[in-house]
Amino acid sequence: MHEMSIALSIVETLEAKAREEGAGRISGIDLVIGKLAGIEPESLKFCFSAAAKGTLVEEAVLVIEEPEGLGECGECGRKFPVSFYYAECPGCRSLRVKIVSGEEFLIQSITIEDQEGE
Amino acid sequence: MCDTCGCSSEGGAVLRKPGLNDYHVHISESGHTHEHTHEHGHHHQGKSRTLVLEQDVLHKNNLLAERNRGYFEARNIFVLNFLSSPGSGKTSFLEKIIPALQHLVPVAVIEGDQQTTNDAERIQALGVPVIQINTGSGCHLDALMVNSAFKELELQNNSLLCIENVGNLVCPAMFDLGEALKVVIISVTEGDDKPLKYPNMFHEADLCILNKIDLLPFVDFDAGKCRENAMRVNHHLEWFEVSAKTGEGLDVWQEWIKNKLKQH
Ligand SMILES: Nc1nc2c(ncn2[C@@H]2O[C@H](COP(=O)(O)OP(=O)(O)O)[C@@H](O)[C@H]2O)c(=O)[nH]1
Ligand SMILES: [Mg+2]
Ligand SMILES: [Zn+2]
Ligand SMILES: [Zn+2]
Ligand SMILES: [Zn+2]
Ligand SMILES: [Zn+2]
Predict the structure, then answer these.
(1) Which of A105, B121, B162, B176 could cross-link with B18 by S-S, CB 3.0 to 4.6 Å?
(2) In Å, how far are B53, B88, B161, B176, B208 from B98, measured between CA atoms?
(3) Cα(B194) to centroid of ligand 3, in Å?
């Protein structure tokens, strides 16, 4: 299950970020996972809660945005939504389709709770 | 716990060398510690703020992969990352092509498996430098493992490095190792719709090798259809059909790699 190693690397990255920012904890994480990125959001959420145990991101709410794929035809230039890599151009039936978006996998933003002064 | 040295590292990747029972290196980022801050149960009404990162989740791996790539390019080392399901014939393919290439170019191999040094032993029998990465529970190689592994191999300038990834068609597609090309192997005992079932892998690959074609008469596998499916997912894919057992088709591939090495 590769979502586990990815969840661990997100936790590690964000813990480092939280420390760098002097944060008490991270309460929210916005991820962008394109429909073509090869990541199962539900599975990632499941792994994330395990990976985050005992860390500064343990209680973070994970919000995942899943943009659709967008293809561009290599023959006629038409742009159209794609849900899979083997898309066919709806205009000219060409299979020479280039994926222009939908493969992104980003940590968009995080919400940090600052440590209150002593 | 590590079964060789008894240290407490859990699930981490380990480098091993065939025949050297005492040799093993744990792969870890230097200075990385696992101190965890423990929460104190209740939350204060602290200030909260949002930080926009727009950072690629695989950012760290990608950065290190680029460093590996820079190293390989500077020393003119051509690197192939071999990917397939378990048992498609990655090691068998290497066993066949290395003896044929060895006299043209120095070859070294990095073997990736969750457990055992079996594949590294098969490669060592050919007399080329090899190191095994055991990923433990990990299901893919990453750029850090490869970085640690090639430092333990004495790589020559102007050489060929073959990396056999962990048998898995899913996540190895996402982890750039710094290779020049990704080679996906599929065998005729698998389904000819495999490229459609694992589109990310076939989309990322630069070439596809259909292996075990000696078995075509005995199985219900349509090579033409498989190729067509693969091309639908990736129309830049270069296609080869071979048998690592009989050697059929390997000459075509060898011509291809010779040309690549010349251009490189
Ligand atoms: N008939 C036949 N068997 C093969 C061929 N290539 C590999 N095998 C067999 O397939 C099995 C798995 O091969 P191996 O190279 O270990 O696969 P890997 O897991 O991808 O490294 C072994 O039993 C090989 O002997 C081939 O071209 N033809
Ligand atoms: Mg193998
Ligand atoms: Zn996986
Ligand atoms: Zn078109
Ligand atoms: Zn150990
Ligand atoms: Zn994996």
Answers:
(1) B121
(2) 45, 18, 11, 24, 18
(3) 16
Q: Distance, CA B57 to ligand 6 centroid (Å)?
A: 14
Contact between B47 and A113 using a beta-carbon 8 Å cutoff: yes
SS3 content of chain A, % helix, strand, coil (to 5): 25, 35, 40
Atom of ligand 1 nearest to the CA of B211: 27
Domain boundaries, chain B: 59-263
Locate the chain B residue with the closest alpha carbon to A10.
Answer: B57
Residues 55 through 114 of chain B touching chain A, CB cutoff 8 Å:
55-61
- Is residue B8 scored above 80 in pLDDT? no
Whether residue B208 is predicted with pLDDT greater than 90 in this model: the reply is: yes
Cβ neighbors of B3 (< 8 A, separation 6 or more) are none
pTM of the model: 0.84
pLDDT of residue B10: 55
Residue with tokens 């962990």: B166
Tens digit of pLDDT for each residue in A4-62? 888 988 999 999 999 998 888 999 999 999 998 888 898 899 899 999 999 999 999 99
C-alpha B230/C-alpha B198 separation (Å) is: 10
- Is there a contact between B173 and A85 if contact means CB atoms under 8 Å apart? no
Give me the interface pTM, i.e. the ipTM.
0.82
Given 3.30.43.10, 1.25.40.10, 3.30.2130.10, 3.40.50.300, which CATH number is that of B59-263?
A: 3.40.50.300
